[in-house]
Amino acid sequence: xxxxxxxxxxxxxxxxxxxxxxxxxxxxxxxxxxxxxxxxxxxxxxxxxxxxxxxxxxxxxxxxxxxxxxxxxxxxxxxxxxxxx
Length: 85
Fold this sequence. Notes:
InterPro entries: SpoVIF. This protein is an all-alpha fold. The chain has one domain. It is built from five helices and no strands. It has helices at 3-13, 17-27, 35-49, 55-66, 74-82. It is globular, with a radius of gyration of 12 Å. The termini are far apart.
């Protein structure tokens, strides 16, 4: 991936490339079928993005990822960071 990709993420999310890389590295071997792991990732992403994730939204995100309806990748993370709800 090129630097522009990460600069776009920084611009859209307000999160530094370094923080994005640290998050990405921590996700490499994570078990996204485990609810606790997914909740932990959601909380970490919300904290990085300085966003509040209401319990109802967290539950929907967890259910979607654990069930396999949504995969955990940079686009999913960016959507979570940009969510206004």
